[in-house]
User: Which sequence fits this backbone?
C-alpha cells in the first residue's frame, strides 16, 4: 500500500519514535493521522488527531477503534523498557510481566481491535521490534524476550493477513535518540530517519526494516555457525 492517502493510527505517539511516525505520515500526504496516547489533553500537533489509548486497557482500545474506524495503516509503536539489575529474582519476573503486558499483549490487543478495518481497507501494519530480539544484553533480557515474542507474532500474522491483502512490516532497530535512551552512552539513530525508512518499505510493499548498521550486522549473523546471539563479539 501507499502511505499517501492512507489513514494512519500510531500508538504511543505523544513523543519519540511514535511522534516521528505521526509527523512523517502527515508530511507524506496521509489523508488522516491519529495519534494514540494515554493522555491527549495537552497534545497539539498540526494535522494530527489525538486519541486516548492505553494498550493495557481493553475498554480504552475498543473506544479508540470506534473513534478511528477508517484506519488503513496501523503503527504498533507503544512500548516500555528499563534496565534489569536483579536477575534470578522475583523482581525480574514482575518486571517481565509488566513488559509483556505492554510490548506483546498490547500489540496483540490493538491489532485485534483494528483488524477488520485493516482488512476492509487492504491496509498495512508496522510493528516496532528491536535488535534486542537477537542481541545479548543481560540488563535488557526481559525486554528482549518481549521483542522476540513480538517478532514471532509479527511473522505469524503476516502469513495470516497476506491472504487478505494486508501488508505486515517488522521494524528492527537499536537505540534511538529519544528520551527513553537519553542516559545510554551508545550510538543512537534519529527517530525521524527510522520513520522514513519504515514508510519507504510500506510504499515498496516490503516486509522488514533493518533501520541501522548495528541491526543489519546482527541480523547477518543469524545463519552463521556462531551467530551473535551465542557470541556477541562476532559483531
Assistant:
Amino acid at each position: 500500500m501507499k502511505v499517501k492517502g492512507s489513514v494512519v493510527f500510531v500508538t504511543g505517539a505523544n513523543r519519540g519514535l511514535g511522534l516521528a511516525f505521526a509527523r512523517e505520515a502527515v508530511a507524506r500526504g496521509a489523508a488522516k493521522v491519529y495519534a494514540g496516547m494515554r493522555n491527549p489533553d495537552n497534545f497539539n500537533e498540526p494535522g494530527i488527531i489525538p486519541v486516548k489509548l492505553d494498550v493495557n486497557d481493553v475498554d480504552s482500545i475498543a473506544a479508540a477503534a470506534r473513534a478511528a474506524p477508517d484506519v488503513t495503516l496501523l503503527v504498533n509503536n507503544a512500548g516500555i523498557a528499563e534496565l534489569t539489575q536483579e536477575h534470578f529474582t522475583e523482581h525480574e519476573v514482575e518486571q517481565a510481566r509488566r513488559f509483556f503486558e505492554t510490548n506483546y499483549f498490547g500489540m496483540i490487543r490493538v491489532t485485534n481491535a483494528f483488524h477488520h478495518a485493516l482488512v476492509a481497507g487492504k491496509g498495512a501494519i508496522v510493528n516496532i521490534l528491536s535488535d534486542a530480539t537477537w542481541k545479548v544484553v543481560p540488563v535488557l533480557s526481559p525486554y528482549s524476550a518481549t521483542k522476540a515474542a513480538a517478532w514471532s507474532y509479527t511473522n505469524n500474522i503476516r502469513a495470516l493477513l497476506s491472504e487478505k491483502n494486508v501488508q505486515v512490516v517488522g521494524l528492527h532497530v537499536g537505540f534511538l535518540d529519544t528520551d527513553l535512551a537519553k542516559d545510554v552512552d551508545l550510538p543512537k539513530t534519529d527517530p525521524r530517519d527510522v520513520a522514513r525508512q519504515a514508510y519507504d518499505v510500506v510504499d515498496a510493499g516490503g516486509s522488514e526494516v533493518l533501520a541501522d548498521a548495528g541491526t543489519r550486522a546482527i541480523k547477518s549473523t543469524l545463519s552463521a555457525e556462531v551467530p551473535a546471539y551465542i557470541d556477541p563479539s562476532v559483531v
About this structure: The CA atoms of residues 60 and 127 lie 20 Å apart.
